[in-house]
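TA notes, week 10

Several of you asked for a full example with nothing omitted. So below is the full record: structure tokens for the whole chain, then the designed sequence directly under it. When grading your own attempts, check the secondary structure regions first.
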């Protein structure tokens, strides 16, 4: 499954998540418990659930994506995030389409 990892240092990584232990992989990328927010019908952003409590740094690139889909000044995005496709009919995480990846990259470059 294709996903996009965006770190607070500004680096962006195209990653392949396995189908076996997706939750553990998501937790590893955000460095903690995950919280998921649907950005639209096709894209979800996974964040560290306790990122603000832990004082994680602002993620400016993920903030641009958030502001585009949810709206500016609606939240302050901190910590590393990973972006995946929306869940399938069984609630399983899906990967991003190539089109979604390209559109997201345009937003943050």
């Amino acid at each position: 499954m294709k996903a996009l990892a965006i770190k607070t240092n500004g680096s962006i990584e195209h990653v392949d998540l396995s189908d076996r232990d997706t939750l553990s992989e998501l937790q590893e990328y955000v460095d903690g418990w995950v919280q998921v927010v649907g950005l639209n019908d096709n894209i979800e952003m996974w964040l560290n659930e306790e990122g603000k409590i832990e004082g994680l740094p602002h993620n400016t690139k993920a903030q641009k994506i958030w502001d585009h889909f949810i709206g500016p000044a609606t939240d302050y995005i901190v910590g590393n995030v990973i972006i995946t496709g929306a869940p399938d009919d069984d609630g399983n995480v899906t990967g991003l389409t190539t089109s979604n990846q390209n559109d997201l990259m345009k937003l943050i470059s």
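The helical segments are 22-30, 60-69, 98-108. Use that as a sanity check on your answer.
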